[in-house]
Amino acid sequence: MSTFTFYAIYFFSLVFAIEANKYLKDKQKVNVDANNLMYNAAIGRHFRMIKVQEIWNKAEKRLTGQPLADCYAELKVQDKLQYDLKWLKHKNKHKALEKEHEVDTQLMTIARKYDLGEYPGMNKLNIPDPHINKDAAKLKSKHLKKLWKQAHYSGFTDEELSKLQDEFLKHQQKLDEYEKMKEKLADLEKVTHNNLGSDDELRLVHKEFKVKNKEMKAVHRELNKKFDGLTKQVNEGKVDEDFTDFRVYQLYAMAKKTAMSKNELENFKEELKSFQQRITKHETLKEMVMQSKEYFDKQVDDGQYPKKHTDLVNKANHYEHVVKKHHNELYHRVDSMIFKHTEL
C-alpha cells in the first residue's frame, strides 16, 4: 500500500467517525434536554430557553391565580418553538431566519398581552397591541385603557370581552359628555364674574350656575360608581370554578395547549377533578393535624404525643407524598405532549 493511499483511507475514516459522532449527539440531544428540565424545575427554572424564562420571572411577580397559569401554558408552547428554532439555526440558517421573526413576534405578543413590559427588539418587530382593536382604540381615558388591558388576562371568553368592550365604550361616551358639561360650566362661571347686566340678570346667571354645577356633580358620582362597577367586574374575572387550586388549573391550561381531542380533554378534566379532591383531602388532614397538636400540647409535657396524633401526622405526610407524586405524573404527561406535538 502506498503512503498516499494510507493517508487517504485514514482521512476518510476520520471524517466518517466525526460525522457519525455528530449524528449520535444530535439524536440524543432531545432526551438530554428533557432530563435536564427536571433539574431546571427543581432549581426554579421552568423553561429551556433563557428569554422565555426571563418573561416568566416577570410574570411570577406581576400576575396571580388563573392569569398566571394561562401565561405559563402559553410560554410552554413558545419555549418549545424557541427550542426548535435554536436547532434549526444549526441545520438550515436560511429557513431559521424566515421563522425567527414569526416565533419572536409570538413570544413578545404574550409579553404585551399580560402587560409584562417591553423587551429589547420588541419595537423592531412592529408588534400590534393585542388589547387594542379598532373600537377599543376609541378609549381615551388612561384609567379605562389600563382596566381594559387587565380585562384581557382575567379569563373572559372572546364573546364576554366583546360585551365588556361595549360597556367600556358607553362609559367613554359618558366621560366625553361630562367633559363637555365641564366646559359649558366653566364658560358660565366666566359670565357670572364678568356680567355687567342688572342685579336680576346676575341672580338668574348665578342660579343657573348652581343648578348646572349640581347636575355635573351628580353625573360625576354616577361615573365613579360605574367605573367602580367595571373595576369589580374585571377584578373578579371569569374564574374557572372547576379548579380552585393553582396547580390543577395550571395543568388544565397546559392541557388545552396540547393536541388532545375534545374527548381526551374532557377525560383529562375529570382526572384533574379527582386530583383536586386529593388535594382537598390533604388540606383537611393538615388542618386536623394542627387542631390535634393544639389539643395535645396542653396535655403533653415530655414531647411524646399519643399514637392517635402520630398516626394522623403519618397519614397527612403520606397523603402529601401521594399528591406530589400524582402532580409530577400529570405534569410530565402534559409537558411531554406539548414538547412532542408543538413544532415550527
Automatic annotation (TrEMBL):
Residues 1-20 form the signal peptide. Residues 161-233, 258-285 form a coiled coil. Residues 139-344 form the Alpha-2-macroglobulin RAP C-terminal domain. InterPro entries: A2-macroglobuin_RAP, Alpha_2_MRAP_C, MG_RAP_rcpt_1, RAP_sf. One of its GO terms (molecular function) is receptor antagonist activity. The keyword tRNA processing does not apply. SUPFAM superfamilies: RAP domain-like. GO terms for biological process: regulation of receptor-mediated endocytosis. It holds the Pfam family Alpha-2-MRAP_C. Keywords: Coiled coil, Receptor, Signal. One of its GO terms (cellular component) is endoplasmic reticulum. Residues 17-119 form the Alpha-2-macroglobulin receptor-associated protein domain. PANTHER family: ALPHA-2-MACROGLOBULIN RECEPTOR-ASSOCIATED PROTEIN. This is Alpha-2-macroglobulin receptor-associated protein. It comes from Octopus sinensis.
